[in-house]
Specification:
Largest sheet: 5 strands, parallel
Number of domains: 4
CATH class of the largest domain: Alpha Beta
Shape: extended
Structural class: alpha/beta
CATH architecture of the largest domain: 2-Layer Sandwich
Radius of gyration: 30 Å
Length: about 450
């Protein structure tokens, strides 16, 4: 709210009113305070700043001046606070009652200021102390130099806009500038060098070349958004178009740039929203239009993710791309289940295998899978778990070998089913787990009872 030259009423004269007064003075509001008494600090400030203190008990007559932008109620009398709130609402004046969000028309966030940059943290009035703690954390993450950074950008926005033909190029230019040397120069106090560098970049920016599209093939990890890489998150925030499949957790999709075009491409077993060839065509289509296209895949795109097929088509079409690895499901799910894939005493090797059926069959080199002290991890093995267990036993693996089926690993909905090779099929029939799952087979599974640390819902 623009408060310059607007009138605001504060009812109260204690420390809480003092804090609100400081905020309103910075906003250049015309402030009036009403209270039988005021703190020494308010009295001292009143001698230096222009605001009005009325030494009196509250009366609704003070609301008759009906041009207040809003009223702040900061007394220590709850009944009086409620009365003032009701009086204000009857006179159609917005009201904020400190620490009473239920009767407020608006709330004050906890504010961090860096020059023209303002960051507001709000808990919706439920926990002001928590909001202030989060603001304190942000203060350590956002250096004071960001205020100077914002001012220099402001001074150069018009010259950039005049040079570039469209708004998309304008955004690409600033995203490029704010992810490189320019910011480092500002934060290290080298403002003159930073300005010279910025002017050079504006002069040499080739809008036609930068307008070429690019594809980001990004691994989203197994589900927990905290497992995303910094690079993955940065590219997710600058993409114009995003293609994602069923294995990407909704909490990760929420982190994609809000105004990006989001396209669900399915990829569920035997129920593909789009065929792989159609997905490849979409990547090419949007990149050719000059968009930055995010292809977001669960786990790691190069481990049973068909990422190689997608970038192969991009190479054929001469389209630029980047590949960002993600934590593969085997690694993430095993770690969150307390099952190390390798261990000096139990497993000196680990093999990843697809359990995806082709024409109802699972054709694998079963003898190679059955090696001493080796962990076997099956991706997409739920539908074929009976075949997997029976074939491994048939080819010589001990039927009492421990195994674990992990459903929705690393998420709050994670479930872990522990059994043996000869009993897992019965567990699946009884419990009816659903995809996505990871199937781990080997003596390392026995370590879960000791190493399990992650508590799901």
């Amino acid at each position: 709210m623009e408060l310059s030259k607007q009138s605001v009423l504060i009812v109260g004269g204690g420390e809480v009113a003092e804090r609100k007064l400081d905020l309103l003075i910075k906003a250049n509001a015309n402030v009036t305070l009403i209270s039988p008494e005021f703190t020494e600090n308010i009295n001292n400030i009143s001698k230096q700043k222009k605001f009005k203190c009325i030494i009196d008990k509250y009366s609704d007559k003070y609301l008759d001046k009906n041009d207040y932008a809003f009223v702040i109620v900061a007394t220590n009398n709850e009944k009086l606070n409620e009365k003032i709130a009701n009086d204000a609402k009857q006179k159609k004046i917005l009201v904020n009652v400190v620490d009473k969000p239920g009767i407020c028309d608006f709330i004050f966030p906890s504010i961090l200021e860096r020059g023209p940059i303002t960051v507001a943290v709000s808990s919706g009035g439920s926990s002001p102390v928590l909001a202030r703690m989060l603001r304190t954390k942000l203060e350590t993450m956002i250096p004071g130099g960001y205020g100077r950074l914002a001012k220099i950008i402001s001074n150069n926005r018009i010259s950039v806009r005049k040079k570039l033909k469209n708004s998309k190029s304008n955004r690409i230019f600033w995203e490029q500038i704010l992810n490189g040397k320019f910011v480092e120069l500002i934060l290290s106090g080298q403002d003159e060098q930073a300005i010279a560098f910025l002017e050079s970049e504006i002069k040499n920016f080739d809008e036609d070349k930068k307008g070429e599209g690019e594809v980001y093939l990004v691994g989203a990890g197994p589900g927990d958004p905290d497992l995303l890489t910094f690079r993955a998150l940065r590219l997710m925030q600058q993409a114009d178009v995003a293609l994602y499949d069923r294995l990407v957790h909704p909490s990760i999709i929420d982190l994609i740039r809000r105004d990006a075009k989001k396209i669900y491409v399915g990829k569920q077993r035997d129920n593909h929203e789009l065929r792989q060839e159609e997905i490849n065509d979409l990547l090419v289509k949007y990149a050719r239009k000059g968009y930055r296209v995010l292809r977001l895949k669960g786990g790691d795109p190069f481990i049973f993710g068909r990422g190689g097929e997608e970038i192969d088509s991009l190479v054929d079409e001469n389209i630029s791309f980047q590949v960002v690895p993600g934590i593969t499901s085997a690694s993430g799910c095993s770690a969150y289940s307390g099952i190390p894939l390798t261990h000096r005493d139990y497993a000196q090797s680990c093999i990843f295998v697809t359990g995806h059926l082709r024409k109802g069959k699972l054709e694998l080199n079963w003898e190679k899978l059955i090696q001493p002290n080796q962990t076997i991890v099956f991706y997409m093995g739920l539908i074929s778990i009976d075949i997997i267990c029976n074939e491994l036993i048939k080819h010589g693996l001990d039927s009492s070998t421990p195994c674990a089926l992990i459903q929705q690993g690393t998420t709050p909905d994670q479930k872990v089913y522990i059994s043996t090779l000869d009993s897992m099929e019965d567990v699946v029939k009884k419990e009816k787990p659903s995809a996505p799952t990871i199937f781990i087979i080997g003596n390392v599974v026995t370590l879960r009872s000791k190493l399990n640390w992650f508590q799901s819902d």
